[in-house]
Amino acid sequence: MSTAMTFGQKQFIPTPPDKGSFPLDHEGVCKNSMKRYLSCLFENNSNNSMCRMEAKEYLACRMEHNLMAKEKWPKLGFPEKEDQTDEAT
Amino acid sequence: MTVGLSYAAVPLYRIFCQAYSYGGATSQADANDEVSKMKAIKDRPIKVRFNADVASSMQWNFKPQQTDITVVPGETALAFYTAKNPTDKQVIGISTYNVVPFEAGQYFNKIQCFCFEEQMLNPHEMVNMPVFFYIDPEFSEDPKMEYIDEIVLSYTFFEAKEGFQLPVPSYAK
Q: CB atoms < 10 A from the CB of B88, how many?
């Protein structure tokens, strides 16, 4: 934590995340998806834009195993084509 | 004073979060609309570096799974930390985070992560902890951000004990 602020300087105020906290993946059910994502990053010079599919796969894995509230992809920043329907149940 | 209040928000948020499972509904509606409408600003890459710390009395091994990720404003990104409990007993941790530079922090939006809520690790257990975030597209329109192309995201884990409160700097009271 950054506490080396001189008196009078603005203090960073942390805020809670929009959708709350991820439940812990105690059993590691989505570990493989995570590894694929990290490999993708490693191969693409840590460029997030190149690994969107893998990130989406990881989040899909979480939703499938009740480790994340189901959400429509556009609301997570993954624009959807009109004919796909990944709707929340 | 305001910092004290914001840290008081932590236990309040925890209670609220547990009641509603995944965060408040009202603020979620606005955030989600923003996310679905925002456009990635491809010509403004930002390197987000990841830092992990634990309080000195906290025994978890906590580290980021990637040293940095290059993102662009308006595009959601996923990052991972790993935490391991090397002890023979259950340890409950709670984390907070910080973003530097200070001025960039206002554009850093977390959709979901593992902070502020208590996380329990069993003896010798290791878990992956994701952070799902984005940099607000308005970042690219702020003249003060013109020369900022690196942001550091730091998470710190504390051990959550009875009556524990996330520490507040003394001069902030």
A: 7
Q: What is the pLDDT of residues B43-80, one digit of tens each?
A: 999 999 999 999 999 999 999 999 999 999 999 999 99
Q: Which helix (H) or strand (E) holds B128?
A: strand B126-135
Predicted model pTM: 0.78
Using only C-alpha atoms, what is the Rg of chain A?
17
Mutate: best of A7, A12, A30, A81, partner B, most B CBs <10 A: A12
Angstroms from A13 CA to nearest CA on chain B: 7
The domain covering B2-161 belongs, at the CATH homologous superfamily level, to: Ctag/Cox11 (2.60.370.10)
Q: What is the mean pLDDT of each run of 10 residues along chain A (89 residues)?
A: 57 79 89 95 94 95 92 90 45
Euclidean distance between CA atoms B118 and B18, whole angstroms: 10
Flag whether the ipTM exceeds 0.85: no
- The answer to whether the CB atoms of B112 and A22 lie below 8 A apart is yes
Picking from A19, A34, A63 by the largest number of B CB atoms within 10 A of its own CB, the best residue to mutate is A19
